[in-house]
Amino acid sequence: MPILDKIVVITKKTALEELIERFNTRAQARFYIEHLGASFDEYDAAHDAYQRALQTVKDAIPKGARAQFVERSFLPTFLFGEHDLVVTLGPDGLVVNTSKYLTRQLILALNPDPARVDGILVPHALAAAPAMFAHAQRGAFRIKRISMAQASLNNGQTLYAVNDLFIGARTHVSARYRLCFQGAEENQSSSGIIVSSGAGSTGWFRSIVTGAAEVMQNFSQAEDLRAAQEKYRFDWEADYLFFSVREPFISKMSAAEMCFGRIEANQTLDVISQMPQNGVIFSDGIESDFLEFNSGTRAVIGLAEKKVNLIVGV
């Protein structure tokens, strides 16, 4: 059985390309940006940097290797082979978006522009591409198996998340649902539920912990509250998740006793929608890719069986 069958490079449109799609030509895009008093030079520079990175990757692909380039908007319909090496050329969000469509394939994440891309989930510089392709062909690499969250609905639909799941209302109205966890249940009204993985602990989860600690410091000067702001991080490979209820509202019909908790590997968080319409579940901040979550729909939230296989070294 081959270690590597094909190299699939996942690309993304640059901001300049998206502007040209919107305004039809580069000249019209420039006019629009400069008319607003902004500089068009940064769009040009970022686009040129990405194109140079893309050419570098093309040049680094070993001779004779099968290769395919796929723009990320085609991911939902693209069929990956079991032994494909998936190369992402873009920011952390491209790694996250790509991972949800994979099973056991390996991901090699390359940073196309270190000056503009933070690269928390993108461990490799472009200069490492030739060596990493060679190591991948020989099967000589180290991987980090990043845990994912999973939402399974009683209508058979499933959604995966590398960073976090959002369960709530599409608009800025209160989400209504019944929460079931560790044998307890309660009706809630809130701004939604965030379920975070270890990879997401430095993002949305950190914001939640930081905000909650800051609010409570206005009521208490306890040292442990200040220290709580730095306890947000947990490992990418952790076999548990955290759920956080945003802005829970207490009323005759809703309670707020179950607003934060740790979901272990053998546990699930069950949420039953009480929203007649506009209930949604989306993952990793991509609101356009969602599951409808309206009245009577039950979501079972827990660790996903599959993981992200991210190449981190040799």
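The above is record 1. Record 2 follows with the same two-line structure.
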Amino acid sequence: MLSALSQLRLMGAVAGSDSGASDYKALVCLFLAGGNDANNLLVPNDFAGYAAYAAARTTLALPNEGLLGISPVRSDGRSFGLHPSIPGLQELFVAQKAALLANVGTLVQPTTQAQYLARSVPLPRQLFSHNDQQVQWQSSIPDRPFTSGWGGRLADMTNAFNENPGLSMSISMDGQNSFQVGKSLAQFSVNRNGVRGLTGTTGDAGAVRMNALKGMFDQDADGLFETAFGGLTSSAIDTSAILGEALEGVPEPTNFPEGRLGDQLKMVSRLIQVAPNFGLKRQVFFVRLGGWDLHDNQIEAHATLLGGVSEAMKAFYDSTVSLGVADKVTTFTASDFGRTFNTNGDGSDHGWGSHHIVMGGAVKGGDIYGKVPVLEIDGPDDTRRGRWIPTTSVDEYAATLAGWFGVSESNLPIVLPNIGRFASTDLGFMT
């Protein structure tokens, strides 16, 4: 009975949202694992700003003549350029199909420099730890032990949009993650090159093994754990087979770059095409690319990583245009944290606030949202070494995306329990 009441509440929450259930929408979380150095993603390029940037970053400073110029819709009086390796993202920014969100990070509540130094407000647990900050970014709850991700709670809330779905709306391209852990809806993992299958189950003997295995799963079990394991595994095997057949009828796009990220986003494009086959009106995807923890040899490695992200994201956006769903698919980046503004010699160390990219036809692009920090060591936004105190919380970032996705204002606290501590539930970057 309690379970039924819970489901009715979720259905009521969806019915009370401003978004109609007839439309399709997808969110794609692109997680840059390791901590992206956003200080070299968005770079001051006015005379005074660049001089201060170069003096602080020393060996990490990019030459100002190579920066890609942008003219945001609004300005705080400073001038900025983008990393020279991301012309695809610059093109999307200029076309107002991509935006930048400045200085986002995990926060328990709004925090000033004075409060941080005095430790007079609660701070996120293990603030500069990779594992902890990855989980907190993906859960949006930095002051309690992990139980679920905000993407999973979003899926629980909006699954009622889907019409008797034959496939989970939460699909991961890179194995298990915290972001998509929900309370009633499980994430489904797809290999970047296709559906995952059990080894040793092909050929004549393999078919016999598969039938025997499924027979074991379908047997009645005495314990709840055995029953749940058998049911879920059998269902996953069946779903993989059906999804594999559906994907066979979808040609692979040819505009994606080779490599891990290009393959993942190409698979997302194909999965979007088969969504109607499974009665899906809402989908949440998780894509991940590692290698961003650059304590040394940063300049070249970071340029390669950013270039790959730019090329793959541009190809993915172009794919949504060709499919006619550009305004229905929103891709957003996330990462453990930013990096220190100064250098450790040949790289950077773990920071806090960072800049992020939001891309899609429904994005109010061509602008920088939020507040770019004062880029000054020991300045008003610094904790130490240019670890910027976030001025926008993960909660506010997520709430803006959740509102576009179909969650009503009154039900945002179910998806984001801490949202009431912050000033905004809509940062304005989505139509």
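The chain has one domain: 27-421.
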